């Protein structure tokens, strides 16, 4: 993990800990590397001065501490100490040496299938402990996973939702990071452990491809793709693609549980380590060529205006963007991605929300119609050119054979008589 020197405005001592380096900064506070008198190293998070007077931010901070206290096991950094009543609230967790999954992929490139499966198995086991504690992380992503020598650790529960917690989410807001948000989060519906499973699948895809399965773009574009488009798993290894695809199902009920993920990924990691090839993937879209044209500009903006307000009592946390009330529309109850929408609200069905087979058939039909139209236009133009050429040739040959216009016959010379010409008188 990259460390930076302390700045002039940074504190040097917080509680019983002396601060040595900066580890990073987020939306709510700054994280420092510190140590107590016994030399125990901690990651100490201090709320920003400008937010210390904001009661809402203090509540979020307190909830992050509460979530850390509820979780048992080695999947997260253990809470060491906290002071929520200080002028600038803070808490300290056990320091986890090692880079984040995001940094490792950025520095060393994509990970082999065996390593991705091994990390995923341990991470899924950690999510089991998180969910058993009644906590939903809601912002699982590569930068929130630290790769310690003892296994991956989940950090940053700043927007986590816990059973019985009051809501801090504003009406019309989405929570989390675009590209790793589940469709129900985009719509503002209630979060469940299946919400973390969707982010888990997107995280595995990132580890295997160094990219989000929904590509790159603005927040509005990414939210549109998450809800309406299938993920691009063309570069995901065959051993992992079916499982990742199942995690990224639009309907939360169609996603596997964390226990199933842990068991299945453990099997895949063992098989890949032994060099046993995986069976060919079935039922998983695999891009054959460049990505199709993505919705941008007005289409993405229109989608952002169609989002529903979160359900009362939904999860809490920081926002990534506000979405106004949706325009009146209707959506079939059986359409993909319809699950989890608040009663009384619906979304217009988009062609990309159909099944992959139906979209491929529609695309082939449209391409055939365009080809026929092009052939028709070309044949019509060639016929017109040939007709015009034939008419020009006919006029040219006819003009050479006909007499010149306004021509008159030349009169013949008068007959001549023999003998001398008569003389004039």
UniProtKB/TrEMBL annotation:
PANTHER family: MITOGEN-ACTIVATED PROTEIN KINASE KINASE KINASE 20-RELATED, SERINE_THREONINE-PROTEIN KINASE YBDM-RELATED
Protein species of origin: Streptomyces polygonati
Composition-biased stretches (Low complexity): 308-340
Alphabetic keyword roster: ATP-binding, Kinase, Membrane, Nucleotide-binding, Transferase, Transmembrane, Transmembrane helix
Region entry Disordered, spans: 270-364, 405-425
Binding sites annotated in the UniProt record for ATP: 45
Ranges annotated as biased composition (Basic and acidic residues): 270-284, 291-302
Protein name per Swiss-Prot or TrEMBL: Serine/threonine-protein kinase
Biased composition (Polar residues): 342-355
Enzyme Commission number: 2.7.11.1
Gene3D superfamilies per UniProt: Phosphorylase Kinase, domain 1, Transferase(Phosphotransferase) domain 1
One Pfam family matching this protein: Pkinase
Domain Protein kinase residues, every copy: 17-265
Taxonomic lineage of the native organism: Bacteria, Bacillati, Actinomycetota, Actinomycetes, Kitasatosporales
Any GO MF annotation of the entry: protein serine/threonine kinase activity
UniProt xrefs under SMART domains: S_TKc
Membrane-spanning segments: 373-390
């Amino acid at each position: 993990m990259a460390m930076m020197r302390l700045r002039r405005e940074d504190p040097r001592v917080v509680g019983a800990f002396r601060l040595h380096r900066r580890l990073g900064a987020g939306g709510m506070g700054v994280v420092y590397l510190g140590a107590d008198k016994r030399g125990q190293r901690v990651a100490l998070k201090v709320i920003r001065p400008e937010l210390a007077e904001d009661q809402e931010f203090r509540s979020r901070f307190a909830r992050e501490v509460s979530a850390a206290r509820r979780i048992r096991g080695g999947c997260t950094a253990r809470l060491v100490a906290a002071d929520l009543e200080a002028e600038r609230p803070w808490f300290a967790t056990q320091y986890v040496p090692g880079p984040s999954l995001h940094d490792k992929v950025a520095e060393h490139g994509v990970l082999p299938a065996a390593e991705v499966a091994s990390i995923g198995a341990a991470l899924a086991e950690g999510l089991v402990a998180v969910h058993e504690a009644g906590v939903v992380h809601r912002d699982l992503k590569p930068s929130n996973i630290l790769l310690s020598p003892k296994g991956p650790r989940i950090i940053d529960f700043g927007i986590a939702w816990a059973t019985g917690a009051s809501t801090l989410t504003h009406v019309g807001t989405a929570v989390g990071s675009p590209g790793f948000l589940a469709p129900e989060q985009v719509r503002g519906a209630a979060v469940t452990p299946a919400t973390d499973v969707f982010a888990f699948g997107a995280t595995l895809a990132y580890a295997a491809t160094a990219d989000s399965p929904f590509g790159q773009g603005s927040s509005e574009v990414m939210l549109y793709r998450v809800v309406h488009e299938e993920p691009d798993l063309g570069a995901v290894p065959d051993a992992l693609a079916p499982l990742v695809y199942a995690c990224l199902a639009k309907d939360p009920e169609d996603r596997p549980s964390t226990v199933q993920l842990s068991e299945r990924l453990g099997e895949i990691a063992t098989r890949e380590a032994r060099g046993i090839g995986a069976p060919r993937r079935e039922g998983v879209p695999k891009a054959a060529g460049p990505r199709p044209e993505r919705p941008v500009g007005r289409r993405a903006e229109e989608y952002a205006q169609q989002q529903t307000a979160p359900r009362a009592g939904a999860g809490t946390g920081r926002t990534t963007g506000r979405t106004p009330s949706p325009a009146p529309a209707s959506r079939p109850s059986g359409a993909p991605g319809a699950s989890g929408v608040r009663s009384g609200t619906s979304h217009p069905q988009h062609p990309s929300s159909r099944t992959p087979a139906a979209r491929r058939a529609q695309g082939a039909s449209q391409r055939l119609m365009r080809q026929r139209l092009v052939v028709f236009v070309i044949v019509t133009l060639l016929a017109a050119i040939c007709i015009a050429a034939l008419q020009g040739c006919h006029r040219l040959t006819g003009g050479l054979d006909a007499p010149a216009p306004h021509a008159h016959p030349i009169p013949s010379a008068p007959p001549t008589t023999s003998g001398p010409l008569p003389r004039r008188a």
